[in-house]
Design a protein that fits this description.
single chain, 101 residues, mainly alpha, 5 helices, 75% helix
Length: 101
């Protein structure tokens, strides 16, 4: 938002809307706000991969590898947070609700 106010060029989706979306999801899930940028990077990679499969005739092996690695990192991240919430549940966040299932 500072970029827009200062007159600098900015990407409305990437610099504003995507960040708000990730911040809201992070808050609803009860994930640390400090992890928001990493979560945004993971979702961007996964989004690139899922979109690429619709328009590329052949998936780039590097893109596919990044997608697999990102999926593994994200899975490990959520497993760790679910395990933590099982031991330390909080009231009102989805990670606590998921951990009790």
């Amino acid at each position: 938002m500072e970029m827009a106010l200062s007159g600098e060029e900015f990407d409305l989706v990437e610099d504003f809307a995507a960040r708000i979306t990730v911040a809201m999801i992070t808050a609803i899930l009860g994930l640390p706000l400090a992890d928001m940028e990493q979560i945004r990077r993971w979702t961007a990679v996964l989004g690139d991969n899922s979109g690429a499969s619709t328009w590329l005739a052949e998936i780039d092996p590097t893109m596919a590898r990044r997608g697999r690695e990102t999926g593994e990192e994200l899975t490990a991240y959520f497993k760790d947070h679910l395990e933590h919430r099982r031991k330390h549940p909080k009231e009102g966040d989805l990670m606590s609700a998921f951990s009790s299932v």
